[in-house]
Design a protein that fits this description.
The complex is a heterodimer of chains A (about 220) and B (about 220).
Chain A: H1 3-39, H2 45-58, H3 61-71, H4 81-106, H5 110-118, H6 123-153, H7 165-176, H8 180-214
Helix pairs in contact in A: 1-2, 1-4, 1-6, 1-7, 1-8, 2-4, 3-4, 4-6, 5-6, 6-8, 7-8
Chain B: H1 2-10, H2 12-44, H3 49-64, H4 67-77, H5 87-112, H6 117-124, H7 129-160, H8 171-182, H9 185-217
Helix pairs in contact in B: 2-3, 2-5, 2-7, 2-8, 3-5, 4-5, 5-7, 7-9, 8-9
The chains are: A mainly alpha (about 220), B mainly alpha (about 220).
């Protein structure tokens, strides 16, 4: 393994990080939307969301990716590895985010909501000014945990042909007949990213515990 | 479309053996990982800084490494160190070792919040060693950790799908080979998705019945 091989793995890292970031960025609001549909008990839609979340949470990302990558072109939706990767990540992370958001919504004190109603705030205002700031705080540790889980499943994207950290490492291993060093480089790239997120989650939890103890 | 599902139905024996392999892989590694967890958890909480330090590095390390890379290292990486395992052994070893770290952390979390009184009472009644552990400590520990262990089992089932890349004939691998033989991607993979969903619903039902037992004991 030489310098250009390591550079190739780093290039893969940029792809991995970009895709994770895009997946998180799109998955967060979609998860919130799904949670709101269930929370507001929208007829029919709430049932569909419940089914979607239950199914997506049980589906391994590999299986989902293979399904999207091979089946969608059959019904006329063109797919390349990158779009299949983003779609798969968003679908799976939004299902998990939905559960985090929903549990925050379920625990939201009803009296605050009624107080906002009684001072004449409209539904949109109530949600934006009263509900959202508080559920973001409560959901934060769960959402960060979900981000670290998402990054940990990204090596699967290599299966549909995305040239990420893992695929770059596999390719170098196959060329040099020395698979161990590129995999170790790949792990050395993953560990600090995931560790940073895990530490961030612990830090937020500790800070909130301290704030609660003071209150 | 109906025809495609007909083809999947004609290949049902392949799919069912994949499902059985997924179930066997997940069950065996979950049970062994839980047992290993019982070894790692006391090490995590050990007063010896060296022992608890090593256990901490193992647990945190596993929680930061993606499972697929870990499986790759065991299957493709270890042979360069002279240790060559077949795909079943590597797959089982990877799933088990990886999840032992998670199980240890789950058990530690459940242990920390357990009340001390029943254990002290047990000691006062002359329980000690293995008997104290088996009849006083273990039952409430497992009941309170039950739901989280159930979640981890679902995670293990999903992780086992990654092992398709080392050609282990589990459910996703079976669906892949049906899709490549007949070119019916939607029918093949959606059937696999439904089977995974079924497996997870079985576990969720098991967890909620454990929860009922726990409530009845309370």
């Amino acid at each position: 393994m030489n310098g250009s091989d390591i550079a190739a793995i780093f290039q893969g890292a940029i792809v991995t990080i970009t895709l994770s970031f895009v997946g998180i960025l799109i998955g967060l609001p979609i998860g919130l939307g799904l949670a709101l549909i269930r929370w507001a008990n929208v007829p029919v839609a709430a049932g569909i969301v419940t089914l979607y979340v239950s199914m997506l949470r049980a589906t391994p990302l590999v299986t989902l990716l293979l399904l999207l990558f091979f089946a969608l072109p059959n019904i006329g939706i063109p797919m390349n590895p990158i779009s299949a990767a983003i779609l798969g990540l968003v679908m799976s992370t939004s299902a998990f985010n939905c559960e985090v958001w929903r549990s925050a919504l379920m625990n939201f004190p009803k009296d605050q909501y009624e107080a906002a109603q009684s001072v004449g705030m409209r539904a949109g205002q109530r949600f934006r000014r009263i509900v959202l700031p508080q559920i973001v705080r409560v959901s934060l540790p769960g959402l960060v945990n979900e981000m670290s889980l998402l990054i940990k499943v990204t090596p699967v994207l290599a299966v549909v042909g995305v040239v990420d950290i893992t695929r770059a490492a596999v390719r170098i291993g196959a060329q040099t007949y020395e698979p161990l060093p590129p995999f170790l480089v790949a792990i050395a790239l993953y560990v600090p990213i995931v560790f940073a997120l895990v530490s961030l989650q612990r830090w937020i939890e500790r800070r909130q515990a301290v704030a609660e103890a003071l209150a | 479309m109906i025809r495609d599902f007909g083809i999947v139905w004609s290949e049902r024996s392949l799919l069912l053996s994949g499902l059985a392999n997924t179930a066997i892989l997940s069950t065996v590694s979950a049970v062994v990982a839980l047992l290993l967890g019982f070894v790692v958890t006391p090490a995590l909480m050990s007063k010896q800084p060296v022992v608890s330090g090593i256990a901490r590095v193992f647990v945190d390390g596993m929680r930061c490494v993606p499972f697929l890379l870990f499986a790759y290292i065991i299957y493709y990486g270890l042979p360069s160190l002279g240790l060559r395992l077949d795909n079943w052994t590597s797959g089982l070893a990877a799933l088990t070792i990886y999840n032992a770290a998670y199980m240890a952390e789950i058990l530690r979390g459940a242990w920390v919040v357990q009340p001390r009184e029943p254990i002290e009472a047990g000691v006062a009644f002359g329980f000690s060693g293995l008997r104290l552990f088996r009849s006083i400590i273990l039952p409430p520990l497992l009941l309170s950790a039950g739901p989280v262990i159930g979640n981890q089992m679902i995670q293990i089932i999903k992780d086992s799908a990654f092992l398709t890349i080392i050609a282990l004939p589990e459910l996703t691998h079976a669906a892949s080979s049906i899709q490549s033989r007949h070119y019916i991607p939607f029918a093949a993979f959606i059937t696999a998705v439904f089977l995974y969903w079924g497996l997870c619903l079985v576990i969720e039902a098991g967890v909620s019945s454990i929860g009922r037992v726990a409530d009845a004991r309370r």
